[in-house]
Amino acid sequence: MSESPNLYTNPTATKTILKPHLHHHNGSPTIIDSGIPLDRESFEIISGTSNPALALEVGRLLGKEVDTDAAHRFKDGEPDVQLARFNLSQKDVCIFQSISPPEGGYYLWELFQLSNAAKYAKRRKTTAVLPYFGGSSRSDKKDRARVPIAARLQADLMEASGISFAVMVDIHALQIQGFFSEATDNMPANQSTLAAVYEYIGDKQKIVFVSPDYGASKRTKIDSSKYAQYYGGKSRIGEDAHIDKHRNPNKHDSVKIARTFGNVKGKIAIVTDDIIDTFGTALGGIEALYKKGAEHVIFVATHGVYSPPALERIYNSDVRMVFTTNSIAPSDEVIDHPKIQVVDISQQLAETLKCVRTGESVSELIAK
Questions:
Q1: What is the pTM of this model?
Q2: Which fold has domain 43-188+349-367?
Q3: How far apart are CA 255 and CA 246, in angstroms?
Q4: d(C-alpha 132, C-alpha 186), whole Å
Q5: Domain 190-344: which topology?
Q6: Angle, to 10 degrees, between the axis of helix 150-160 and the axis of helix 104-120?
Q7: Beta strands in the chain (DSSP E)
Q8: In the chain, which residues fall in CATH 3.40.50.2020?
């Protein structure tokens, strides 16, 4: 396996967020600089306090200033919101906010107030850019007695605050898009994460993509096909494999790994998922893959929640590398972790937002 200058094995090293070379650019001007011109005077970008660094980078790529000073906190923790930087009258507004732990409830309430303030500032339309749609992403259906469908409630409250359109990144359950009365776009982050994986493992490795459960098998098949499309056909990629796990519906966070299906012997197993939380379920899957003869296991997910004791579990595990994105603002501990590489998605987000603004096809962008 090749050693990449973007990756580190020294736990005391100071690392940075990896900016991958997206396959569809090929050294040519990006979609931001080509196609339908972007009317930069017709909209403004505002960031909440959850992930301002990502919003600033997207703004830079779009040639737009970003208001990162619109939200503060009173001493008692209540949001203090004022949109003082830009004149928003008859302009569209894009509000960046990751509804991320450990203060997802606060960030959601802050988003409501930012949107409400934009409405009273006589904005034309508000787009919420949600790199991480947390707070209710696992509550998309009534699968047990006397439980809420909180994702529907969250969508209703967002619209009540004045949000008319939402751009999300790898939403946990695609059906959540149906809870919004207006259109939404869901941006898969796999163009960025697969580029980072390719830079890491090089050209000559035998690999197999592994679904962490049956529910994620469609996502894994898409990732496998895209990797083959981007980086040299299917000759190096084995048939997809998956892990069979069982969840106890009556016990919180209780998952048992039953068995694995597919041939992983002598191959680099790339497990793809949308969220890494405590890394507890992943540990069982990694152990099962090594027992099946995998040479190495790499874990790829869009959203790095990293609830304790995830970082410790990753460090002590046999996983070769974990890739997550900056959809959630990474802590210094995450960035400096010897087995974690944070991948930047600002290029993909900027391209998606540009398509939304100009009317170009988001679907065609995703298909590249």
A1: 0.89
A2: Rossmann fold (3.40.50)
A3: 6
A4: 11
A5: Rossmann fold (3.40.50)
A6: 30
A7: 43-47, 66-67, 71-73, 79-81, 92-96, 125-130, 165-169, 184-187, 207-211, 241-247, 255-261, 268-276, 296-304, 321-325, 340-343
A8: 43-188+349-367, 190-344
Q: Which residue has 């609830």 as its token pair?
A: 307
Rounded to whole angstroms, how far apart are CA atoms 187 and 35?
A: 20
245, 267, 339, 354: the active-site residue: 245
> How much is the CA Rg of the chain, to the nearest whole Å?
21
Local confidence pLDDT in tens for the 368 residues of the chain: 444 333 333 344 457 899 998 866 554 445 566 678 899 999 999 999 999 999 999 999 999 999 999 999 999 999 999 999 999 999 999 999 999 999 999 999 999 999 999 999 999 999 999 999 988 777 778 888 898 888 898 999 999 999 999 999 999 877 888 888 888 999 999 999 999 999 998 766 789 999 987 777 888 899 998 888 888 655 556 678 878 766 555 555 555 555 678 889 999 999 999 999 999 888 989 999 999 999 999 999 999 999 999 999 999 999 999 999 999 999 999 999 999 999 999 999 999 999 999 999 998 888 87
Locate 287 and state its tokens: 């152990």
H/E element holding 152?
Answer: helix 150-160
206 counts as catalytic: no
